[in-house]
Specification:
By secondary structure, the chain is an alpha/beta fold. It has three domains: 116 residues, 2-Layer Sandwich (Gyrase A, domain 2), CATH 3.30.1360.120; 130 residues, Four Helix Bundle (Hemerythrin (Met), subunit A) (Up-down Bundle), CATH 1.20.120.430; 143 residues, Rossmann fold, CATH 3.40.50.300. It contains 14 helices and 13 strands. The strands form two sheets. Strands 3-4-5-6-2-1-7 form a seven-stranded mixed sheet. Strands 9-10-8-11-12-13 form a six-stranded mixed sheet, with helices on both faces. A hairpin with a 5-residue loop joins strand 4 and strand 5. The longest helix has 25 residues. It is flat, with a radius of gyration of 29 Å. It starts with a strand and ends in a 7-residue tail after the last helix. The relative contact order is 0.12.
Length: 442
Amino acid sequence: MEDTIAAIATPFGQGAVALIRISGDGVGEILGRVFQSIPFLRPRFATLGTIVSPAGDTVDQVLLTYFPNPGSYTGQDLAEISCHGGILVTQKVLETVLAAGARLAEPGEFTQRAFLNGKMDLTQAESVMDLIGARTELALQAANQQLEGQLGDRIREIRKQLLGVLAHIEAFIDFPDEDIDPDTSEAIAARLRGIIDSERSLIATAEQGRLLREGVATVICGEPNVGKSSLLNVLLGFDRAIVSELAGTTRDTIEETINLRGIPLRLIDTAGVRESDDELERQGIDRTEQQLQRADLVLEIVDISRERGRSIGVPSGKHHLRVLNKADLGRHPSWEEEAGIETSCLRQDGVEGLADAIYRTLTSGDVPWRADLTAINTRHRACLQRSCEFAERALEAVGAGQSAEFISMDVRESLDAVGEVIGRADTEELLGEIFSSFCIGK
């Protein structure tokens, strides 16, 4: 926090404009050494000027915007230099700033300083990377809601309720002559049940959050020549995979991502499953089986124009849809009673019906995707589960008539666990783990 840090905030590569960000108490001194402009630099106004080297040579003509503390992203003095976007010129501007006294920022250090200076809580800091990495409008909406503090507000409300319960219980500990009467015990139990319900409702959104961030691992599997690669190409809208009547064409998995009504689908085309003596094809089939174990959704493709073959062993507990492909060729008698989604990749028939079926399958859980976009991540879930467990133990202790001291210990543990979600009980190790996944410059 004492150092002045600097980094390129735009992606590496050549473009029209690049942005270099500087933050810390030494921003003013550094700008005085490297930036020359007329008129004088004004806060929050873009000022045209030049970046000059220690030898007085012009490095680049730039626009510079200065944000004095505390009204900046980091809560410190902060400057943003918009320079020309060439790889060399951008690097030279950064080197000039570093030579003037700044050090290169670590990944996520600007956002970490914003958190440490109270500009945002930990859920908002994490949502910055969710916003950058969003691949669909639904993921973008969820990230924006979290950045606005909606998740943090719900966590703070739970903490407030737990603090109220803890204060009530410890009041009785401070006055040992007064017992908790049945009415008071029931009131505490009711408040704990409400807290547990609130935490469980948030925990229920964890899977939704994972799918929005990582995408739905959608494995396209089946026997050779049933149309797996053709279906991948149709869903993508372009020819990504080689399509051939020769069995065993697909030897390795092919992965692409599409946007299905706001839900990112990671489509994984796999090798056809059959008995084979070919070593390369056998390795491809082994990879298919590995992908099936990791899948969120399995699209089992079958060719209903020919006699029914072997069934693919889909692991239990997976979302599973059977796609009856090559419907334009008619059904073989062995498929007459088979239910599924009929498609014809050749004619591109049935694709919209398949999209409908996928969407219904993924959104048929307890948490409506569009009604509640709160989507906690893995860390949030672990903290909330731990908090919920301690709250449930406290509730059981109240029901069993245990002493206020035991109840108080569980409530305090629950309070500490839920506080970790927004960073009220943060440690250096926790912060290091979170911000290490950020890009440099953010």
